[in-house]
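Dear colleagues,

As part of the handover before I leave the project, I'm documenting each prediction I ran so the next person doesn't have to rerun anything. This entry is a single chain, and its sequence is reproduced below.
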Amino acid sequence: MNNANPFTGTWALAEWSVTHTPSGYVHYPFNGNADGHLIYTDNGWVSATLMEKDRKHVPQDRHRLVAARMLLNPPKDAPKQDLDIDAQQQKDIDDLMERFCLASMGYITYCGPFEVNNDEVQHHIKNSLVPQWVGTTLARKFDISDNRLTLSTNEGEFSDKLVWQRIA
């Protein structure tokens, strides 16, 4: 561990809760079935992953994946094609898209440089599964004690708290 920066290292998710502040109701994202890792490097970068455990597997048939992506988002320079898709092929594509949608809704990831200012750590997002986070800063209040890192933020009526355990 880099003693100059207490963040440096690998952290495993121990708890994630979201509180609806007005009512005090506490919710556990992914039905409390979450896993994740947070990695802070000694050169000032952070990589975060959170996921719902036991997500349904998604097909790995590359041909079907490319076909579905071409239907959803054809390249701008691709010639216009009328694809002759029968009902079964359309059902397969719809199933594929649903599975990928559910898989991605159960996964959060981002990375970028970070900095610490007083009692706040700021993650400057360079890459993210959530497109609108790219180029933004996620600011979190923090507390580090006994190899545990607690990050919290308030957004509107909700308060997120993530507790991480140092593993390396």
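The CA atoms of residues 14 and 133 lie 24 Å apart. The helical segments are 62-72, 87-105.

All the best with the project,
I.
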